[in-house]
Amino acid sequence: MRSDDTIFAIASGQGRSAVCLIRISGTESRSILEMMAGKVPDPRRAVVRTLREPATGDPLDQALVLWMPGPQSFTGEDQAELHIHGGLATRAAVLRVLGSLENCRPAEAGEFTRRAFLNGRMDLSQVEGLADIIDAETEAQRRQAMLQLGGRLGDASEGWRERILQVLALLEASLDFSDEGDVPEGLEADILKAIASVHEEIRKALANRSGERLREGLTVVLAGPPNAGKSTLLNALAQRDVAIVSPVAGTTRDLIEVHCDLGGLPVIIVDTAGLRESGDLIEQEGVSRARARAQDADLVLWLVPPEGEETQAPSARRVLRIGTKADLNQNRRDCDLMISAASGEGLRELIGRLEVEAGTLMGQGDAIVTRERHRRALERAQSSLERAHAMLAGRGPLELAAEEARLAARAIGEITGRVDVEDVLDRLFSSFCIGK
Ligand SMILES: Nc1nc2c(ncn2[C@@H]2O[C@H](COP(=O)(O)OP(=O)(O)OP(=O)(O)O)[C@@H](O)[C@H]2O)c(=O)[nH]1
Ligand SMILES: [K+]
Ligand SMILES: [Mg+2]
């Protein structure tokens, strides 16, 4: 793979469609347009052209063609777009011609965005925001991703990094100019204050975990004894027939997950095997999976049926007791809510409760930290800031305090990619789809 190749890819999804968008980026973009579409149109003006096979002049398709010269393009390079008809044969013919041209090859996953990053068109946190926009399934996820693409995390972390670099500059100046290797009196207090204030802002950002939850979705596990009505409730919430329902106790064995949109918030609802002692090996495995999933869940709905003896709810972060089959028996031991999937009673209230729970745990996209990667970088920065602070306050060696400040700035720099981060890049871009 050469980074100076001209790359091309379908950007509009696979399979037959009305229109298919082919993106081209790199130095050959202009000559490709000349060869296939005749005259190059004015920059950023869509024109209709007949695309032709360069060798024979045979027509390939009628297309809408765009010319977007760098550096004012998405990738920062010369780019062209061909909006062709989306028939499978038309796609194949145009891709075949592009692939046969010299220095021109299909793009790798995420390569357009990688070039945009390398050409300084966006920082790494914005790249992640872009990936999140493409993956966003709910309104709140979309909003959070837009804020990140707009640079909210990038701006915050660049601000912190700048302030740490100022601290570093002061420390190095002290190292150069003081004989005792000491920071001058008044300056030391200023430096300590600056470190403490950056540390406090990062601490607040880390304390808010709603950003990561919003990206990943809130997990709600349906648990209870066999025949409590778990699968029936899952089907009612999903509004389709996802899980098998039957009067046979022990029907569900595997975990069944459904992604729902509750008031714009992403919630993953998990149906599980009924909890009971069982001699059946497969059911035992189902029960242990159910317990494990309940333990990791953000919320467990513990379903209590009218019949049968009371079973112990699994240990979980948060549990709501839901009495099921309210149509059969209204008298139930202390439940948070009564529902009947048969009559529909209580379902609307339950969904309301779930929306409130989700809203409390996920906020409405006010978090800055949205990924484990950001969290780890900021935590490393925090440790370095704490060590730098302790060393200065305890009159430890200035060189070491300066080194810790440098490490803190570096850790924060990884968020936007303002430092050397090849390994981070490979992991990130390989998760992108081709054509992005
Ligand atoms: N009357 C009434 N019956 C219900 C209701 N909800 C579920 N049932 C019945 O209860 C039985 C068990 O329902 P399931 O949804 O399979 O129960 P489950 O908890 O998934 O059971 P397992 O997967 O075996 O643990 C089925 O016969 C359902 O039709 C309800 O609200 N009212
Ligand atoms: K059942
Ligand atoms: Mg079931």
From TrEMBL:
<dbReference type="InterPro" id="IPR005225">
    <property type="entry name" value="Small_GTP-bd"/>
</dbReference>
<feature type="binding site">
    <location>
        <begin position="246"/>
        <end position="252"/>
    </location>
    <ligand>
        <name>GTP</name>
    </ligand>
</feature>
<feature type="binding site">
    <location>
        <position position="121"/>
    </location>
    <ligand>
        <name>(6S)-5-formyl-5,6,7,8-tetrahydrofolate</name>
    </ligand>
</feature>
<dbReference type="GO" id="GO:0003924">
    <property type="term" value="F:GTPase activity"/>
</dbReference>
<dbReference type="GO" id="GO:0005737">
    <property type="term" value="C:cytoplasm"/>
</dbReference>
<keyword id="KW-0819">tRNA processing</keyword>
<comment type="function">
    <text>Exhibits a very high intrinsic GTPase hydrolysis rate. Involved in the addition of a carboxymethylaminomethyl (cmnm) group at the wobble position (U34) of certain tRNAs, forming tRNA-cmnm(5)s(2)U34.</text>
</comment>
<feature type="binding site">
    <location>
        <position position="246"/>
    </location>
    <ligand>
        <name>K(+)</name>
    </ligand>
</feature>
<comment type="subunit">
    <text>Homodimer. Heterotetramer of two MnmE and two MnmG subunits.</text>
</comment>
<feature type="binding site">
    <location>
        <position position="227"/>
    </location>
    <ligand>
        <name>K(+)</name>
    </ligand>
</feature>
<dbReference type="Pfam" id="PF12631">
    <property type="entry name" value="MnmE_helical"/>
</dbReference>
<feature type="binding site">
    <location>
        <position position="248"/>
    </location>
    <ligand>
        <name>K(+)</name>
    </ligand>
</feature>
<keyword id="KW-0378">Hydrolase</keyword>
<keyword id="KW-0630">Potassium</keyword>
<feature type="binding site">
    <location>
        <begin position="271"/>
        <end position="274"/>
    </location>
    <ligand>
        <name>GTP</name>
    </ligand>
</feature>
<dbReference type="InterPro" id="IPR004520">
    <property type="entry name" value="GTPase_MnmE"/>
</dbReference>
<feature type="binding site">
    <location>
        <position position="252"/>
    </location>
    <ligand>
        <name>Mg(2+)</name>
    </ligand>
</feature>
<feature type="binding site">
    <location>
        <position position="251"/>
    </location>
    <ligand>
        <name>K(+)</name>
    </ligand>
</feature>
<dbReference type="GO" id="GO:0046872">
    <property type="term" value="F:metal ion binding"/>
</dbReference>
<dbReference type="InterPro" id="IPR031168">
    <property type="entry name" value="G_TrmE"/>
</dbReference>
<dbReference type="InterPro" id="IPR025867">
    <property type="entry name" value="MnmE_helical"/>
</dbReference>
<keyword id="KW-0963">Cytoplasm</keyword>
<dbReference type="InterPro" id="IPR027417">
    <property type="entry name" value="P-loop_NTPase"/>
</dbReference>
<dbReference type="InterPro" id="IPR018948">
    <property type="entry name" value="GTP-bd_TrmE_N"/>
</dbReference>
<dbReference type="GO" id="GO:0005525">
    <property type="term" value="F:GTP binding"/>
</dbReference>
<dbReference type="GO" id="GO:0002098">
    <property type="term" value="P:tRNA wobble uridine modification"/>
</dbReference>
<feature type="domain" description="TrmE-type G">
    <location>
        <begin position="217"/>
        <end position="359"/>
    </location>
</feature>
<dbReference type="InterPro" id="IPR027368">
    <property type="entry name" value="MnmE_dom2"/>
</dbReference>
<keyword id="KW-0479">Metal-binding</keyword>
<dbReference type="Pfam" id="PF01926">
    <property type="entry name" value="MMR_HSR1"/>
</dbReference>
<keyword id="KW-0342">GTP-binding</keyword>
<protein>
    <recommendedName>
        <fullName>tRNA modification GTPase MnmE</fullName>
        <ecNumber>3.6.-.-</ecNumber>
    </recommendedName>
</protein>
<keyword id="KW-0547">Nucleotide-binding</keyword>
<feature type="binding site">
    <location>
        <position position="436"/>
    </location>
    <ligand>
        <name>(6S)-5-formyl-5,6,7,8-tetrahydrofolate</name>
    </ligand>
</feature>
<feature type="binding site">
    <location>
        <position position="23"/>
    </location>
    <ligand>
        <name>(6S)-5-formyl-5,6,7,8-tetrahydrofolate</name>
    </ligand>
</feature>
<feature type="binding site">
    <location>
        <begin position="227"/>
        <end position="232"/>
    </location>
    <ligand>
        <name>GTP</name>
    </ligand>
</feature>
<dbReference type="GO" id="GO:0030488">
    <property type="term" value="P:tRNA methylation"/>
</dbReference>
<dbReference type="InterPro" id="IPR027266">
    <property type="entry name" value="TrmE/GcvT-like"/>
</dbReference>
<keyword id="KW-0460">Magnesium</keyword>
<feature type="binding site">
    <location>
        <position position="81"/>
    </location>
    <ligand>
        <name>(6S)-5-formyl-5,6,7,8-tetrahydrofolate</name>
    </ligand>
</feature>
<feature type="binding site">
    <location>
        <position position="231"/>
    </location>
    <ligand>
        <name>Mg(2+)</name>
    </ligand>
</feature>
<dbReference type="InterPro" id="IPR006073">
    <property type="entry name" value="GTP-bd"/>
</dbReference>
